[in-house]
Amino acid sequence: MIYLVFIAAVLALGFAAFNFVTVKRMPEGTKQMQEISGAIRVGANAFIHYEYRILYTVVAAVAVLMAVVTTWHAAVALLVGSIMSGCAGFVGMKIATYANVRVANRARETENVGETVKVAFRGGSVMGLCVGGFALLGIFLVYMVFGVGMGQARITSASYTNLLGLSFCPFTMTLSGYALGCSMVAMFNRVGGGIYTKAADMGADLVGKTEAHIPEDDPRNPATIADNVGDNVGDVAGLGSDLLESYVGAISSGIILAYHLFSKSLAEGTGMDGELLQTLVLFPLVFVSIGLIASCLGIASLLFKKNMSDDPHRDLNACTYFASGATILLGLISSCLMFGGFESASLKEILGFQCGQFSPWVAATVGVAAGVVIGMLAEYYTSAGFKPTRNLARTSLEGAALTITQGLALGMKSCMAPCLILGAGIIASYQAAGMYGVAMSAMGMLSFVTATVSVDTYGPISDNAGGIAEMAGLDAKVRKITDTLDSVGNTTAAIGKGFAIGSGALAALALMISYLYSYNDFDTELILNLIEPMTLAGAIIGGALPFLFSGMLIEAVAKAARKMVEEVRRQFREIPGILEGKRKPDYKTCIEISSKGAIGEMKIPSMLAIVVPVVCGFILGPEFVGGILIGSTICSIMIAIFTGNAGGAWDNGKKYIESGEIAGSGKGSPAHDAAVVGDTVGDPLKDTVGPCLDIFIKIMSTVSLVAVAVFAEHNLAAWIMGLF
Amino acid sequence: MIYLVFIAAVLALGFAAFNFVTVKRMPEGTKQMQEISGAIRVGANAFIHYEYRILYTVVAAVAVLMAVVTTWHAAVALLVGSIMSGCAGFVGMKIATYANVRVANRARETENVGETVKVAFRGGSVMGLCVGGFALLGIFLVYMVFGVGMGQARITSASYTNLLGLSFCPFTMTLSGYALGCSMVAMFNRVGGGIYTKAADMGADLVGKTEAHIPEDDPRNPATIADNVGDNVGDVAGLGSDLLESYVGAISSGIILAYHLFSKSLAEGTGMDGELLQTLVLFPLVFVSIGLIASCLGIASLLFKKNMSDDPHRDLNACTYFASGATILLGLISSCLMFGGFESASLKEILGFQCGQFSPWVAATVGVAAGVVIGMLAEYYTSAGFKPTRNLARTSLEGAALTITQGLALGMKSCMAPCLILGAGIIASYQAAGMYGVAMSAMGMLSFVTATVSVDTYGPISDNAGGIAEMAGLDAKVRKITDTLDSVGNTTAAIGKGFAIGSGALAALALMISYLYSYNDFDTELILNLIEPMTLAGAIIGGALPFLFSGMLIEAVAKAARKMVEEVRRQFREIPGILEGKRKPDYKTCIEISSKGAIGEMKIPSMLAIVVPVVCGFILGPEFVGGILIGSTICSIMIAIFTGNAGGAWDNGKKYIESGEIAGSGKGSPAHDAAVVGDTVGDPLKDTVGPCLDIFIKIMSTVSLVAVAVFAEHNLAAWIMGLF
């Protein structure tokens, strides 16, 4: 059955390669279009090369440290993970920089929405398929080499005493290393890309829209190419490696938990056998393989569709619904087949499976349902079709201060509903299949990630296509088509963000439980006791961590954006004729400012998640780190929802104002100026802070999980206590 | 020793009465000044009467419910608490509306800063002394009538079995009722007053400063009287009952914990005797009585000082330092005397007292130190004398969007340092004196609350005096003196906010521990296990609660402010001659808008803290409510620090811009406009949301503590589980 993983991975990567080549063969359009897209491509390549150089230096350092402190297997797995995630991000970004101009050209040639959507989606599907393909390929390699080949995964009742003598299971450590490798790439891509894209975006808007009153993507704006580069490095590569990391995190937390449950069962004598362990380990792998194949089918159904509807949103939704529906259906069959051989009563007793052989499937389905509802809630709060964003847009008539105030209120109020769903999801999936169920619900949310990433990546590609159309001065009809695509992209992005934080939260919780298993004795009950002063202090300090992290990120964006503002102002001042369109601005300097700003500012926040749990662990011990994990997970969920919805609502509120549907609004009105302030404030919140937070909590959990094997025994606090 | 409480309370109330009469006898100044202050007084009285009518209706309903569900003793104590807190707020507000005009007049007559400070401080001291005096008077009454008179406090080893048969100790329930009464008044005063004051302030600023470009407190602004009324109902009455509630919460959590520790010790057979229980119960009462007497002396030392320095900040600090120093010194003596009779070894074994007889004192001193450091950190982040606020002011040169972005970053980053102090404080006080130590450190922070409230109330009185001076067209010299007083008031307010949230957090944690004791068996170890899915789900939903609450409050302020904006615009438009100063605006309508807005909007958020834990408890049981408490406590701490510091920094950043010290800034510059946007956004954050959150968490904890006796046994989840 493990070969299903390999088949799915190869199928996905093959499909990705086919789509890559197909897109690249399409015509690029006019010479001017080629020039512009060339400039964007060069900028994106330069940034990602430079970023990867720093990233892989840090990865190498962490791998060496890991080999010394834990095992060399984990270090190698870390490298494998970082390569898989790095490849996915790189390939996805590469195709996005080819696809953007081809989308614009297809719109120019056919003037047909459906045909244009297909090109953008084909480009986006490469990113999606790479996420699923590379992630599973890596897991397959790690499982076959270390798990099967070196026997790490072969733990039976015979190795019982041996196992409990160690404070960790060897394969869970290796798998954690793999997950950590993926997470590190995601962190750097998200933070670096996030700072890059928003510094460019804010810089371009602050001078272009607010001071010079020229439209978005106007070629007279020196920061406009940097802004488009940012879409590719931030919203494509960043998003891809982010979801790859969530995907791997969810899968590995399920597998790691299976091993811990096995150890615990052995210690308690409730008698889980090797066969059940094997099934528990294989189920997540089989389930995500099914999800990947279903996603491939869903993508194909859209790409080979003859009659596209006029509404791209409906076609894209059909793809996602097909993938998720097929996953759930096939998942039901596999759950029955795999767990059907075990007795319901014993499953219930050993693992808390309340629904017998259906239990893991029920938990996964709960996850899928929760993900869909959370996504819908994100749409409700951020779409101009609903009350909250319309109210927000209306406050813009009263000026910038009330726009900000109302947006903050909207974001804060929007936290409750998704948290109710998350809470209900946790209780339901736990009732269905115990702790393992919580991990399965995270995995359920992410099982058809290839479809969702494909849809998500379609957004920035369309955005870029619109930018190229504008800069190349294409016909208004073309721009209208790309605008249609772009506005659909905004909605899918909001839904995607809800999905990312929901699944991230569940995966982080599953990892946290694995963490607790790693240092607690298996024969005591598992507790994270917030009445312990160490844990409580950890929870309070942990709660402050995501705020510190978010504040640092916002400040980093603001700093780089300010430099960009100065440069754009300088160019307008010193190079005469730019605003009249007589001379070309100096795009390159702006690209350099964004690159340098991002590279310079990303280091400290990225390292925070890796360094804090390790340092705290060695000084204050595992209870304190446990507190840190729960505190930062809870606060990260809140900030991610708050920033995502507030930012999304400001963005769409501004668009609603631009549509002029409210009396006294429209482009150029004072209400529009106020709405632009809201949008600008929301930019770093929704596109830098929010998306980085789910990586932040997972990387902290994974690092703690890896390091706890060491600091559980050796820490300063325990040593001091030992002195008395 | 219990009579010390009575003596201290009577001393404080006598001193308050003396200061009240002294202030009221001072001359009021010109006829115009009398008119203006009369209008403010009438507005404030009208609002507080209307607010109290609603408040006491709700209190009465809760009391009846409580008498039915728990005990009638608790219901009566609730009424006593609400009357004490209501009186303190009422008297403090009353004197503030007398003192404001007299401060302005003293400045006019003497043109001396020191003399003027004395009047403002004498007015403020009435509020401070009422907080300490009424709080202790109420506790004394409750203790003597129910504890001693009806024997509820007399629990010895003889009543052992009897005690464990009940799921709560009768006196702890009565005391919780008293604390809840105080909390309910605080909630309504803070929320109602907070909405009132910020709606008026924002409304006045949005049209006055931003559109009409007239200065603050200009009599041509129709909302200016409402703004000054707001200072009295929000910043005086609200602040007073807020700190009274924290004070009572900290004292009662110590006493309640003492009873729980006694019960636990009996159940475990570690042998705490009645004498030690008595001492543990009396110690907090003695300590705060000492603190109250020391505060009286500190206040007197300032009021009867002959040679005031030129720097009011130094004189005010001297008062606080004297009070806190004397409290610590006398507290050391009382700790030694009271606990000296017990053996160190047995104290250590039974209660975890690591420092023998000094233990409770050490914990209290840790609290005082933590409070002072947290206050200093708040000053660092919000004062224009330090880097963060100066940097923020500098970003105003780049426009409103970056001012907001940078301010959000500053607020978020500022969460970490105070949380580190809180975490360290928890660990240190726990090490010194166990769980009891955590409660003692909260009590330590608040023991000299009379001095800090006196200093805090001095601020809004000075603010009002400045407003009256401006409106009455007094000499520029007078306005300069009141401005000096006002700027000192801003700093003391920032420090006071740090203090409030720090002590609120510790008191809430102590109450939470009491809550856990209330439903767990005494012979099992006390745990709040976040791995339990019910608790975990509760923590996530609990984390979203303060965000919901904050969002509702911000929206309430924005809604009322928008109405105010419309009214002010209407008056400027429809009543010709206002802006030329030829005709008086219609102040009364603006006062009515603020009143109606506050009264209408305060109900739902105020009830949230009372209703949520009860409803959740009856549906999902005590574990879920435990999770709610920890989740909302952690997130409330973060939001309170974040909003307080961001708002304070925007406020002082604007003042720094106005000072013109940065090139290109100064009043009327574009940078100033941007800074005003920041200040306006910050207003509801720092003065409505932040201060309400510490009440929010304590009221939730107290309500849970009261209701758990019922819902621990009777809840829907347990009933459903029982069906299977």
Automatic annotation (TrEMBL), chains A, B:
Cofactor: Mg(2+)
Annotated NCBIfam families: PRK00733.2-2 (NF001954), PRK00733.3-5 (NF001960), V_PPase (TIGR01104)
Gene giving rise to this polypeptide: hppA
Activity-regulation annotation: Requires K(+) for maximal activity.
The keyword Transport is assigned to this record: yes
An example Gene Ontology molecular-function term: diphosphate hydrolysis-driven proton transmembrane transporter activity
Documented EC number(s): 7.2.3.1
Membrane-related topology note: Multi-pass membrane protein
Function: Sodium pump that utilizes the energy of pyrophosphate hydrolysis as the driving force for Na(+) movement across the membrane.
Transmembrane regions listed in the UniProt entry: 6-23, 54-72, 78-99, 119-143, 163-188, 244-262, 282-304, 316-341, 361-381, 402-427, 433-455, 499-517, 537-561, 604-621, 627-650
Subunit details: Homodimer.
Cellular-component GO terms for this entry: endomembrane system; plasma membrane
UniProt name for this protein: Putative K(+)-stimulated pyrophosphate-energized sodium pump
Residues under site feature: Determinant of potassium dependence: A493
Main EC class the enzyme belongs to: translocase
Cell compartments where the protein resides: Cell membrane; Endomembrane system
Matching HAMAP family: PPase_energized_pump
GO BP, one annotated term: sodium ion transport
Record field: catalytic activity: Na(+)(in) + diphosphate + H2O = Na(+)(out) + 2 phosphate + H(+)
Entry keyword set: Cell membrane, Hydrolase, Ion transport, Magnesium, Membrane, Potassium, Sodium, Sodium transport, Translocase, Transmembrane, Transmembrane helix, Transport
Protein family (similarity comment): Belongs to the H(+)-translocating pyrophosphatase (TC 3.A.10) family. K(+)-stimulated subfamily.
